[in-house]
């Protein structure tokens, strides 16, 4: 009997091809995030579930699927939507999609950094509002990146590529995180390891590249924002809840930091309305990995993980060994 593979939301065709070789594929037709009851209903009898970052995966979902469930393959590198201990304890393997989205996400972080420091969103809004303007030596001045300090929170795969790109812009690299990077990485990037407090105090740009965990939830809170320079900008392409969005809106409104560029939000897809009223804020709708190439590669990788597990092999990307 073919194994049942449930895909919570449409994935690119090349991934479906891989999945169809591995079992009987059911793609949920709603094309929106499913409610918890809908998701539980959809996964009944599944041997494999392909999930998106908005799907809550926990003991209840595993119970709803049934004891035959073997794998949950998240089409994302982050897996804060999954209660990994609860799921793996029930004999289900969890996989993610590391590696394939590193460049795309790093590119977006640099794009956001340029947008916020060069006021590109503001400039666009001015023109689209058909407002008059003329070239003027002190018109809409931003700040340059050369010789400024980029403070990276989490020098993992994405953080390192962001650092490398930023070096090409002439920035100096500092980082903080749970552990120190390898000596070769530090040497290549000329990256200084700092305590979180020191990093926040000295960085001109703080860019977040850590996973969302209980340790990083609200890592950027009122106190952290108060530590940052009044000119510093915050870039977030990691997960929304790493930042206390209310505290951020307040700090920005009061001019206690220079600006923010956000691809992710604390209560996605909602955005704290106060942020949208501020000109020194750039917002994007979670586009970090949103290139055709990358999204296809992510879905294919998730599909390969499913196929390996259903065939009884070691998957390439288990999140827990
Ligand atoms: C996207 O946000 C991901 O974690 O892959
Ligand atoms: C700017 O546009 C310049 O020509 O300097």
From TrEMBL:
Keyword hit for Hydrolase: no
InterPro entries: D-isomer_2-hydroxyacid_DH, D-isomer_2_OHA_DH_cat_dom, D-isomer_DH_CS, D-isomer_DH_NAD-bd, NAD(P)-bd_dom_sf
PROSITE patterns from the UniProt entry: D_2_HYDROXYACID_DH_2, D_2_HYDROXYACID_DH_3
Keywords for this protein: NAD, Oxidoreductase
Ranges of residues in domain D-isomer specific 2-hydroxyacid dehydrogenase NAD-binding: 110-288
Record Pfam families: 2-Hacid_dh, 2-Hacid_dh_C
Gene3D superfamilies linked: NAD(P)-binding Rossmann-like Domain (3.40.50.720)
GO molecular function, one term: glyoxylate reductase (NADPH) activity
GO cellular component, one term: cytosol
Residue ranges occupied by any D-isomer specific 2-hydroxyacid dehydrogenase catalytic domain in the UniProt entry: 5-319
Family affiliation: Belongs to the D-isomer specific 2-hydroxyacid dehydrogenase family.
Xref: PANTHER family: 2-HYDROXYACID DEHYDROGENASE-RELATED (PTHR10996), GLYOXYLATE_HYDROXYPYRUVATE REDUCTASE B (PTHR10996:SF283)
Protein name, entry field: Lactate dehydrogenase-like 2-hydroxyacid dehydrogenase
Organism encoding this protein: Saccharopolyspora phatthalungensis
